[in-house]
Amino acid sequence: MTDLDHAPVGLVQLPTQRADSPPKRRSFVPKGVERLIGVAVLFAVWETASRAGWIATDVLAGPSTVLTAGADMLGDGTLINSLWASLQRVLWGLAIGIPLGTGLALVSGLSRLGDNLVDANVQMLRFIPIIALQPLLVVWLGVGETVKISLIVLGVTFPIYVNTSAAMKSLDPRFGELAAVLGLTRRELVRRIVLPAALPGFLVGLRLATAIAWLLLVFAEQINASSGIGYLMTRAQVFFQTDVILVDLITYAVLGLLSDALVRSLDRRLLRWQPGR
Amino acid sequence: MTTLTHSDSGTVLHPHDNPELTDLTGLAVATRDVRRRFGEREVLRGIDLDLRRGEFTALLGRSGSGKSTILRALAGLDPDAEGEIHVPRQRSVVFQDARLLPWVSVLGNVTLGLDSPDADTSGRDALAEVGLQGHENDWPKTLSGGEAQRAALARALVRSPELLLLDEPFGALDALTRIRMHALVQQLCARHHPTVLMVTHDVDEAVLLADRVLVLTDGVISLDVPVDVPSPRLRSDPSFIRLRSHLLTELGVDESAEGAHPSPLV
User: Fold this and answer.
1) What is the ipTM of this complex?
2) pLDDT tens-place string over residues B204-241
3) Are residues A146 and A54 in the same domain?
4) Chain A residue with Cα closest to B92
5) Range of A84's domain?
6) Of A40, A60, A80, which one is at a domain's C-terminal end?
7) Can you give the residue range of the structural domain that contains B223?
8) Which of residues 144-163 of B touch A (CB under 8 A)?
9) Which residues of B221-259 are buried (b: 16+ CB within 10 A; e: fewer)?
């Protein structure tokens, strides 16, 4: 190939690669590792500061102290027992809230009467901050497990309802026409068209719901718990055990991350049919 | 002699006792004075349409002429149409978009709503007939535009329709795919002999495929001509050219102007 001797008048040359140009120099460090450098620096500074005594342990424990505390709590079983107690509350909340939200969405999505009865009420109630319901719930239900689970149930129900019913209501009318042309029964229409079309919305709701469930768990466990991660934290607070508090915070974060990953993998599995996946 | 109103193969969408509608055996579609208003605008202004069994009719019209409105009325999708409409019970529609359910496999789309035990077998056969064997378990998103439309054809054919309604079925396809689809439709019609009403704005397509061409102008059928082009129909055949220009004139297109000043947009 030969180059043009003269640039054509009135044209601009766009930057392109030349066949003989040397390959771009690449960094030897993978991008993921590069990003960790910042985190490593932060931890190093933190560790140094707490060893040198610049940060008092009852203000913020150093990373190595937190690690030791975590290992101890794992070893004597307190972490596992607390984790199980907390996990149970979230699972109960989801187990009741998901069917409740989905059921309400079906009632309002499948009949006009249901829509009138359910939708306006739910849309009104969902603007009450769930946390603000706590005093009322305590009056009704006391301070046992029921009130903690109820808070989570409420927090789960609304996002499931809102997203599922929105997806049902935005069903492409062309599919309704198709069902009429194919002579689908109402049952088939619901099973083959309405419900699958609502699935993406439901999964968005589910992802929000799990995030909210953990949030409300933290709040519920501060009320009056005698078990669970929140209980560990409250007790550690009394004794200024910042290392234990940090272990609990990390546990919450890991649980949140894991449940989000779980919902996302569910998403991938169930929505393989979607274009662009 | 039976009136269609009482015929066992027919459905009456708008039953009236009309003495004119006697001795109409051999018809797959019969409408009288069908009207449709959208607000102030009357889109259909009295459509009398008889389609003989097995006949392939193309319905031409400019955009907004109401041709899709007729098709939707015949499909039973328009309960607000006025007048009398008689159609067979077994009807299938192919829309301009393939309208496959994205969350159902290709085969599942074809057999959607069929409850006979051999639905799967006939679905596979229909897919093979349109050249989509091997795609049974694919998601619709993996099909090209032409393949999706062929799946839609298979979905229509598997129901053995007496009346096949095609609503600009090739309008969204590229020119090469469209030619292949024309051949496929010709093949399928030769084999199954359904009564076909195809709405299109493509004059060549109408002359190529149909036995009879109707032109809809301002809500009434303004022209009704048989297609007398000998088969195989070639665009270069003098009778093809004659009919084509006749139809274009009826549609208000001036061919000479078109040739003399090619559209600057092309």
Assistant:
1) 0.82
2) 999 999 999 999 998 999 999 999 988 888 889 999 99
3) no
4) A181
5) 71-270
6) A60
7) 4-90+161-253
8) 155, 159
9) beeeeebebeeebeeebeebeebbebbeebbeeeeeeee
